[in-house]
Design a protein that fits this description.
Belongs to the bacterial PQQ dehydrogenase family. The chain is mainly beta. Helix content is 11%, strand content 29%. The chain has a five-stranded antiparallel beta sheet, with no helix packed on it. The protein has a five-stranded mixed beta sheet with strand order 2-34-35-36-37, with no helix packed on it.
């Protein structure tokens, strides 16, 4: 492959708007005498356009005047946990979602509330969420706002009034399916996938009629029970790559986030997730590629017909999803213009694939990896390091771990610079087989020993692991397959990215700041303290000749919940907001409260070491994903060590077994845990409260 430069950027906004493939703007600039509400370049699709480039053609805000950027207005979303939404801006209105799927419509210029809609999600569904009660936004078309809900519904709302038009159930609600991703729309069809692979479901993507909510087609991503027959030739082909009785474990392969669309080729691209369980030696004993796990799949949007696929991780066994952000672009490779799809999935390789045929063009690791040496361009397959395939073997400390080299946080491609800006990270993890695994339809099913993911409490070991955990903003040249520049962050789990024709890159971070960098060299030019961490991606839009930058703040997500207490950043659990900036903005955020919550003394620790050890195993298998490693909370939800519910066994059982707090998002574990288990959990949590681990490890900001 040559080092030929990318195709020169199309500077004209009119040319950028010519094809919806590169549509970061909603409409071509109208005449100067057009009504004020029509003089707008807006953000009407999730990734800025069908190509999902997250590039804005707006250039009013530039390195020369970025110092004048200030807050125009902010809107309190009323929640603070896990705000991951990409706002949309349509006809002067900005639409944003918050925790538990509440939709707000605001005046995009002033922030005045137009309407709100609360879908009244059953908060006990938190039991089926691997990665926080999050939602990544809405879709818009034909005067309708479309949104998915955590409990598996797809809703259409009137964009002007917020009145519900239709409400469709997209999953079997008796199974642990969820929806956290944003829908996509092509013509008169709405596309949505789902989550739940860690719990034992079978993945699929569905198409619905935008006017009625009627199901039009469904494409399954992994095969079902062969005795039931294959739904399509694609499923018959996939079944040949599986072993054993995988359907009893669901199989996984959920389409929980990324999609893209090429209108010229009329192809819908979906990213497919991990296996269920993760551990292939349990899921598919004897191996096999296990199609279409960890794959990019091209479909016909009108029918769901399979066209081609590329599998990034054959025989997936590490939670290496390929649901990460996919970008379509035209680039010059070896002197030839190629229509490509680009992805930096969890497994640590950056893929450039011909989006017409699915042919692999190049793949290089964008973060350090130790599970494979390289990708063979002849076969398109990674060359694995044998020790990394951990099922039934010795534990293996691996890079990347299940958080990936890049997670859901969207990256951005600038046709001006030819660079892809990736929220990259290094998070090692020890994979080891759960020797006591048994499938539980109501519980967490990875087939991995959860205790191995717990950080060491030895001071020297803890410091070594902490030093190995990193986050960075990486500017990646997809043609040369090498970094152009990178900026190191204080911790991983930083926000999605926006690039602009003004030569800027915007990213929020775990240190509660929205930052602007030069797109060509990564120089830090400007920042704004948001009071709470930013994981959502920014957008840009123009109204009445002014360019705005908008981003939702609200620290959260799976890394923040599990390890946020052990890796404290500058983010506190604060108010989630939608913040909008413009040149000359003079608004400010309310002052941070200095209120300190009193910590009641925990009960005396009287349990024996065996009970405490058993409680830790139960905690790591069921509780850590929300309440934090070693019971050290991120602050996003109550710290169990200081809970008054520790007072008696009966109190803890009322919550854990009987579901006393299910309406507040604390699910019942009845059927998963016994009363004896709840007692052991209580003993371990009390022990952790007395252990004083934070002081021992010198954890602090």
């Amino acid at each position: 492959m040559s080092n030929a430069p990318a195709i020169p950027a199309l500077k004209s906004v009119a040319l950028l708007c010519f094809s919806s493939l590169f549509l970061a703007c909603a409409k071509a600039p109208p005449p100067e005498d057009a009504p004020a509400e029509a003089r707008a370049v807006e953000w009407t699709k999730h990734g800025g356009g069908d190509a999902e480039q997250r590039f804005s053609p707006l250039a009013q805000i530039s390195p020369d005047n970025i110092s004048q950027l200030g807050l125009a207005w902010a809107f309190d979303l009323g929640v603070s946990r896990g705000i991951e939404a990409t706002p949309l801006v349509v006809d002067g209105v900005i639409y944003v979602t918050a925790t538990w799927n509440k939709v707000s419509a605001l005046d995009a210029k002033t922030g005045a509330l137009r309407w709100q809609y609360d879908p009244k999600v059953d908060r006990s569904k938190a039991a089926d969420l691997c990665c926080d009660a999050v939602n990544r936004g809405v879709a818009y078309a034909d005067g309708k706002i479309i949104t998915g809900t955590i409990d598996g519904r797809l809703l259409a709302l009137d964009a002007k009034t917020g009145v519900k038009l239709w409400d469709t159930i997209t999953v079997d609600q008796s199974q642990p399916y969820t929806i956290t991703g944003a829908p996509r729309i092509v013509r008169d069809k709405v596309f949505i996938g789902n989550g739940g692979a860690e719990y034992g479901v079978r993945g699929y993507v569905s198409a619905y009629d935008i006017n009625t909510g009627a199901l039009l087609w469904r494409f399954y991503t992994v095969p079902g029970n062969p005795a039931d027959g294959a739904e399509s030739p694609a499923m018959a082909k996939a079944a040949e790559t599986w072993k054993g009785e995988w359907w009893k474990f669901g199989g996984g392969g959920t389409v929980w986030d990324s999609m893209a669309y090429d209108p010229e080729l009329d192809l819908l691209y979906i990213g497919v997730g991990n296996g269920s369980p993760w551990n292939q030696s349990i899921r598919s004993p004897g191996g096999g590629d296990n199609l279409y796990l960890s794959s990019i799949v091209a479909l016909r949007p009108d029918t769901g017909e399979y066209v081609w696929h590329y599998q990034t991780t054959p025989g997936e066994t590490w939670d290496y999803t390929a649901t990460q952000h996919m970008i379509l672009a035209d680039v010059n490779i070896d002197g030839k213009a190629r229509k490509v799809i680009m992805q930096a999935p969890k497994n640590g390789f950056f893929y450039v694939i011909d989006r017409v045929s699915g042919e692999l063009l190049s793949a290089k690791n964008y973060v350090p990896i130790n599970w494979a040496t390289h990708v063979d361009l002849e076969t398109g397959r990674p060359v694995e390091i044998p020790e990394a395939r951990w099922g039934g073997k010795a534990p293996y400390m691996q890079l990347p771990g299940p958080f990936g080299g890049h997670n859901w946080h969207p990256m951005s491609f600038s046709p001006d610079s030819g660079l892809v800006y990736i929220p990259a990270m290094e998070t090692p993890y020890v994979y080891a087989q759960d020797e006591n695994f048994s499938f539980n339809s109501k519980g967490w099913n990875t087939g991995a020993d959860s205790a191995m993911g717990s950080l060491p409490t030895d001071i020297a070991q803890f410091k070594a692991v902490k030093a190995a955990v990193k986050g960075r903003l990486l500017a990646w040249d997809p043609v040369k397959q090498q970094p152009a520049w990178q900026v190191e962050h204080n911790s991983p789990w930083n926000g999605g990215v926006l690039s602009t024709a003004g030569g800027l890159v915007f990213q929020g971070n775990a240190d509660a700041k929205l930052v602007a960098y030069r797109a060509d060299n990564g120089e830090r030019l400007w920042d704004f303290f948001a009071q709470t961490g930013i994981v959502a991606p920014p957008i840009s839009y123009e109204l009445d000749g002014e360019q705005y930058i908008a981003v939702a703040s609200g620290w959260g997500g799976t890394f923040a919940l599990v390890y946020g207490g052990l890796f404290p950043a500058e983010s506190d659990a604060g108010v989630g907001r939608l913040m909008v900036f413009k040149l000359g903005g003079k608004a400010s955020l309310p002052a941070i409260s200095d209120k300190v919550t009193a910590r009641p003394a925990p009960p005396e620790s009287t349990a024996d070491a065996k009970t405490i050890a058993r409680g830790k195993v139960l905690y790591d298998s069921n509780c850590v994903v929300c309440h934090g490693d070693h019971v050290i909370s991120s602050g996003l939800i109550p710290d169990l060590r200081w809970s008054p519910l520790l007072a008696t066994d009966a109190a803890i059982q009322a919550v854990v077994i009987d579901g006393l707090l299910s309406s507040r998002g604390m699910p019942s574990f009845n059927g998963v845990l016994t009363k004896s288990d709840a007692q052991a959990l209580r003993s371990y949590i009390i022990h952790a409260a007395h252990e004083g681990l934070e002081a021992k490890l010198d954890i602090g900001k």
